[in-house]
């Protein structure tokens, strides 16, 4: 984004960014993924379609950001233990997958992901990058405390955490019990600890 | 199945069952999920459509069985350690998700799963039951050896294993390295061990 030229028109308005994200999340719940068009989002957010297309390549990216990156801007948790930090991150994932917007967006989003090799190739790079960055901070602190080895495979752990929540809450549709995040965090933390 | 009355027609022919499963897996790879109709499967397998509908409620169930239950009939692994047994089970999952049939079936299958609440409700009961049975045998042996506590949550561990492989191989599309199953098995086994 930062490398794109500051071309036509006014500088970006953070309020319009938030209005677009907000309109997208609400529209998906109200009318479903299929009917959530860029045009409908633009109308709801009070912006032009080109404003949206300047920031997002298409609907999947926009919906993904609106539904599944709600905790990405939060600083990495720092509870003092690896299990505690993973619990905080997992609780964010559980909340996202359990929210009405996730249930509304997931079918269409998954179909688009799975059917589009280019989109698929961008999952790791674009969609998962902020989560990976937060997990790397958590891992660095855990390594400094001596809880894990420096070479703990961050991508695999990230996929394990996200996959477990996705499968348990998103796909199988289990109602997440209040201990889900803590239980999963305890298992994974113990599994990668050096002791 | 065994509780249904032995009604109209001949007894079931295991060869036709295998021919149907085989035709389904091949058709999905050749023409994709959308074009894999019950009629096309019937023609390819040399059976009538009603033969298929007597055994499977519809296409998603048939495709799921053809693509994702290839190891369900194998006995539960018995390598002598929990990590070893989980490695064998995970390698089966990795192989399934990495096979061409999975790549071909996953988009449509996920869309059908996610869009159909009834189908979704059957995932745990019908689709995951054989895997859960095998994992329960593995867990019983591990508990007898003192590796894990008797109350280890089998559903959550199953979702963690399946979700990790699904996310890593199926969704993100990482080419699974040869150590993937063993690495994941080691993490999860260590994470649920009593020590």
Automatic annotation (TrEMBL), chains A, B:
Pfam families: TetR_C_11, TetR_N
Keyword RNA-binding: no
DNA-binding region boundaries: 37-56
HTH tetR-type domain mapped to chain residues: 14-74
Keyword Transcription regulation: yes
GO MF entries: DNA-binding transcription factor activity; transcription cis-regulatory region binding
InterPro entries in alphabetical order: Homeodomain-like_sf, HTH-type_TetR-like_transc_reg, HTH_TetR, Tet_transcr_reg_TetR-rel_C_sf, TetR_C
Keywords: DNA-binding, Transcription, Transcription regulation
PANTHER family recorded: HTH-TYPE TRANSCRIPTIONAL REGULATOR RUTR, TETR-FAMILY TRANSCRIPTIONAL REGULATOR
Protein name: TetR family transcriptional regulator
Annotated source species: Streptomyces gardneri
């Amino acid at each position: 984004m930062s490398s794109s030229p500051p071309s036509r028109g006014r500088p970006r308005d953070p309020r319009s960014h938030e209005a677009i994200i907000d309109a997208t999340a609400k529209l998906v719940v109200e009318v479903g993924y299929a009917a959530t068009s860029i045009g409908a989002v633009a109308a709801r957010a009070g912006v032009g379609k080109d404003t949206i297309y300047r920031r997002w390549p298409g609907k999947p990216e926009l919906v993904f950001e609106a539904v599944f990156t709600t905790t990405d801007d939060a600083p990495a948790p720092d509870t003092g233990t690896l299990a505690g930090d993973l619990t905080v991150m997992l609780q964010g994932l559980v909340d996202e997958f359990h929210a009405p917007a996730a249930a509304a967006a997931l079918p269409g989003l998954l179909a688009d992901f799975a059917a589009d090799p280019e989109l698929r190739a961008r999952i790791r790079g674009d969609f998962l990058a902020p989560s990976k960055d937060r997990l790397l901070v958590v891992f660095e602190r855990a390594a400094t405390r001596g809880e894990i080895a420096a070479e703990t495979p961050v991508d695999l752990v990230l996929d394990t955490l996200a996959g477990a929540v996705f499968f348990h809450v998103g796909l199988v549709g289990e109602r997440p019990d209040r201990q889900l995040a803590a239980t999963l965090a305890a298992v994974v933390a113990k599994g990668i600890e050096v002791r």
